[in-house]
Amino acid sequence: MNFQLLKQKTLHNFAGNWVAAILIGLPYVIMNYATVRFRFLSFILAILAILGILVLVGMVFTLSEWFDFNQVPKAPLTATFRNMFSTPKPWGPFLLCIVVYGFMILWSLLLIVPGIVKGLAYSQALFIYRDHVLRGETDPDINEVITESRRLMNGHKLEFFWLNLSFIGWGILSFMTLGIGFFWLVPYYMGTMVNYHEALVAGGDVI
């Protein structure tokens, strides 16, 4: 899969609409800033972790909706919050993320590498959950979704690892701008992940 074409497609999706893209990712960026700020306060950190997962769900679903229908949300920030609970079973995506993170932690207790490998294998779970909902399923089975993600990522885990690694330079640059760059990087990165899933499902074609 051509990463350059994949990223160019994301930039094309956002062309002329970067304000909307930044607003969609804004809650996630704020949650991450807050997590760093209160990292030594366990109770607040637990609340922020829950909110972080919810805004991640909202961001992923909003960007996926935008790209699927080629329509910019009229109220981007509101769309992110609305899509946190937009599925027939509102807490389904949140519970899926909890299970996925739980599995990753358990694998990481063995060794770091198995945890990373499983994280790559489970990376498509949230996107697949949404695919199931679009097909009319009201309550996708979490274990089935995770298994489908593992199957979809067979032969693609290293590819996905390199794709993520290709954003390190942008991450360093964002830190050098005192974090301001993350307001741009987060939607750019997550938009690329949305397009990656689309290409993966289509058989690896970017366009």
Defining key terms:
transmembrane, 207 residues, mainly alpha, DUF975, membrane
Give a verbal description of the structure.
This protein has eleven helices and no strands. It is mainly alpha-helical and 207 residues long. The protein has one domain. Helix 2 packs antiparallel against helix 3. The mean pLDDT is 93.
Question: What is the overall silhouette?
Answer: globular
What number of domains? 1
Mean residue pLDDT: 93
Number of helices: 11
Would you identify the regions where 5 or more consecutive residues have pLDDT less than 50?
none
Rg, nearest Å: 17 Å
Count of distinct strands: 0
Helicity level, as a percent range?
over 70%
Summary, kept brief:
With 207 residues, this protein is mostly helical. It has helices at 3-14, 18-37, 42-69, 76-82, 92-110, 112-121, 125-134, 142-152, 157-165, 168-176, 182-201. It is built from eleven helices and no strands.
Detail the topology: elements first, then pairings.
Elements: H1 3-14, H2 18-37, H3 42-69, H4 76-82, H5 92-110, H6 112-121, H7 125-134, H8 142-152, H9 157-165, H10 168-176, H11 182-201
